[in-house]
Amino acid sequence: MNIAILILAAGGSSRMKATKQLLPIDNNTMLGLTIERALNSKANKVFCVLGANSEEVSKSIAGYNVKVILNSEFEKGLSSSIIKGIESIKPYSFNAVLITLADQPNVDTEYINTLIDTSIKHSQHIIASNYSGAYGVPAIFPSKFFDQLMQLKGDKGAKVFLNSNLETVIAVEAKDQLIDIDTREDYLNYLKNT
């Protein structure tokens, strides 16, 4: 099975008041850590959507074997990054795409591989992370859903799409993987607990 990983890292980090993608974690940056874990997974290729501060962020990840996609419309929300990403990966004929965020530092390679293994067993289903009963990303979408993903709007990203297609979703229990780092307080709490 040919799977791409699409890391969404285009946001302007307005609540953080700093370039979130470049925050230091474990001798790396938040985005660098996300990319490393993706590259170490069973996926075939890693793509990263950048937008805000793209020049600076792009330089910070230049050493990684990842294809950068620029989203000049990142201010329109997460959906714009998903659309840009799907447009860019379509020509590669992937069977599925794993969409993940750059600000979930607890999503490790093992968890990514669990999602991929589940997708291999259930290749026609969406594989989503279970946030105590609601579904979200990281999630894997088979290619038959690509056109629908390209119709998304606003800042909810794939969440609304996932939760309105429940009959096609297989959920993977995520435990503590799904902490989002949105504020300075989130970041400091994360550092304190790792």
UniProtKB/TrEMBL annotation:
<keyword id="KW-0808">Transferase</keyword>
<feature type="domain" description="MobA-like NTP transferase">
    <location>
        <begin position="6"/>
        <end position="165"/>
    </location>
</feature>
<protein>
    <submittedName>
        <fullName>NTP transferase domain-containing protein</fullName>
    </submittedName>
</protein>
<dbReference type="Pfam" id="PF12804">
    <property type="entry name" value="NTP_transf_3"/>
</dbReference>
<dbReference type="InterPro" id="IPR025877">
    <property type="entry name" value="MobA-like_NTP_Trfase"/>
</dbReference>
<dbReference type="InterPro" id="IPR029044">
    <property type="entry name" value="Nucleotide-diphossugar_trans"/>
</dbReference>
<dbReference type="GO" id="GO:0016779">
    <property type="term" value="F:nucleotidyltransferase activity"/>
</dbReference>
